[in-house]
Design a protein that fits this description.
Blueprint: E1 2-7, H1 10-20, E2 28-32, E3 42-43, H2 51-60, E4 63-68, H3 71-75, H4 78-84, E5 88-90, H5 98-101, H6 103-112, E6 120-123, H7 126-133, E7 140-144, E8 153-156, H8 159-170, E9 181-185, E10 190-199, E11 203-211, E12 214-216, E13 220-223, E14 228-231, H9 238-258, E15 264-274, E16 277-284, H10 291-298, H11 303-312, E17 326-334, E18 345-347, H12 350-353, E19 359-363, E20 366-369, E21 372-375, E22 379-387, H13 390-401, E23 409-410, H14 417-424
Parallel strand pairs: 1-2, 1-4, 2-3, 4-5
Antiparallel strand pairs: 6-9, 7-8, 7-9, 10-11, 10-15, 11-14, 12-13, 14-17, 15-16, 17-22, 17-23, 18-21, 19-22, 20-21
This protein binds adenosine monophosphate (AMP) and glycine (GLY).
Glycine binds at residues 150, 211, 225-226, 284, 288-289, 291.
Length: 425
């Protein structure tokens, strides 16, 4: 079967790497892909917002299965268009993608189906938002309702900051994504990401991970798309996984079906493990990046049947096998990220750096210029390792990373620090 992956990040490189290993996969295409995927897939230029162009490409290349990586094409209805054209697709409908597309929708769903989450209010009017906010404790969380590339969440440490965030969001800082906002109680605890495949009715838990969103060591500085991750997340014990499934995931599956928006794809539940147990921070409707890279390193089974079963409604017939080991992914980004950064700087010695059996380097913002790899994006490389502990996975990932010759890049040196501290005891 010929397969098309939509996307260009480290997430899509790792998905493609795993899909390429499947006996079910003949030709693999990635649109648009990146500079590191040439040996496993054919990279093609397609406009994923032009559904007719994607459908025509699939017909031309006899593509029977499409895997959509990022959220924007999902919210834009690409999965619906492909499915209507008779092309099997992994990724939820536009209607179901509202779980990520509107934070207000998800909060209302939680309220209606009794899913534990932070107390909240939804507002389109600044005065009303401020009146509600003034009655909350500090810190208080202000969120743009729509997709804001991970930048639409402000944790305000003072009322002045909260009011400024309200004015910024409703004043148009995030465009349409900020036409509405959510004001939310601040939750304390340890964060974890939980991934669950769903075919609209049945679920298959698909791994846990912990991301590091801040740009600076010790979790300081600006928020990013994610600077590194490891899997599994020790805080997600079997008991916590069971509670999350019973209290959060299954009520969501049933609620979405009851609302006429059955969810077929992967739930990426961002959780806060509080004193009371798991609470939902937010849903994403696609794999996390860099979390996905760590999941793909640990997945022993063929991924293709599991992803196809989400579209087919046959997930109850699928089981998958995971490595007991720990995977770690350290992100290298261009100096300046998440602010402005230089493009087209040269990266060298990648083959040598990625030579160890337990290390794989997934590309993100790169392009190939002849034999030379150039950095073209903010997050550029993902150095991923698999080992018997978080401590050793970190050693192996950083040993590989230190062989990479890229003066234009930087990384956090402390990915996994919480778990590494725990392993010392
Ligand atoms: P998001 O971009 O929605 O993933 O949110 C970014 C980050 O903001 C999350 O990963 C959390 O660290 C933090 N956050 C969001 N909502 C809350 C909340 N209610 N309480 C505490 N932290 C939060
Ligand atoms: N790493 C967080 C995300 O993919 O949204």
């Amino acid at each position: 079967m010929n397969i098309l992956v939509i996307g260009s990040g480290g997430r899509e490189h790792s998905l493609s790497w795993k899909i390429a290993q499947s006996d079910l996969c003949d030709e693999l295409y990635v649109a648009p892909g990146n500079g590191g995927m040439g040996d496993i897939a054919t990279c093609v230029s397609l406009d994923d917002s032009n559904h007719a162009e994607v459908i025509n490409f699939c017909r031309d290349k006899n593509i029977e299965f499409v895997v959509i990586g990022p959220e924007a094409p999902l919210v834009g209805g690409l999965s619906d268009a492909l499915t209507e054209a008779g092309i099997k697709t992994f990724g939820p409908s536009a209607a179901a993608s509202i779980l990520e597309g509107s934070k207000g929708f998800t909060k209302d769903l939680c309220a209606k189906y009794d899913i534990p989450t932070a107390a909240y209010g939804r507002f389109t009017n600044a005065e009303a938002a401020k009146e509600f906010t003034a009655k909350q404790n500090i810190p208080v969380v202000i969120k743009a309702d729509g997709l804001a590339a991970g930048k639409g969440v402000i944790i305000a440490e003072s009322m002045d900051d909260a009011f400024a965030a309200i004015d910024d969001i409703l004043g148009g800082q995030f465009g349409d994504a900020g036409a509405e906002l959510v004001v939310e109680e601040f939750l304390s605890g340890e964060e974890a990401s939980f991934f669950v495949l769903c075919d609209g009715e049945n679920i298959l838990p698909f791994g846990t991970a912990q991301d590091h969103k801040r740009v600076g060591e010790g979790d300081t500085g600006l928020n990013t798309g994610g600077m590194g991750a490891y899997s599994p997340a020790p805080v997600m014990t079997n008991e916590m996984i069971d509670r999350t499934i019973n209290e959060i995931i299954m009520p969501t599956v049933k609620g979405m079906a009851a609302e006429g928006k059955p969810f077929k794809g992967v739930f990426f539940a961002g959780l806060m493990i509080t004193d009371k147990g798991p609470e939902l921070i937010e849903y994403n409707v696609r794999f996390g990046d860099p979390e996905c890279q760590t999941l793909m390193m640990r997945l022993n089974s063929d991924i293709v049947p599991a992803l196809m079963a989400c579209a087919d409604g046959t997930l109850d017939q699928i089981s998958v096998d995971w490595s007991e080991k720990t995977a770690m992914n350290v992100v290298m980004a261009a100096k300046g990220y998440p602010g402005s950064y230089e493009k087209n700087t040269e990266i060298n010695n990648l083959d040598d750096a990625g030579a160890a059996d337990n290390v794989t380097i997934f590309h993100a913002g790169t392009k190939k210029d002849g034999e030379q790899i150039l950095a073209t994006g903010g997050r550029v490389l993902n150095i991923t390792s698999l080992s018997d502990s978080v401590t050793n996975a970190a050693k192996d990932a950083y040993a590989a990373l230190d062989k990479i010759e890229w003066p234009g890049g930087f990384c956090r040196r402390d990915i996994g620090w919480r778990a590494i501290e725990r392993e010392k005891n």
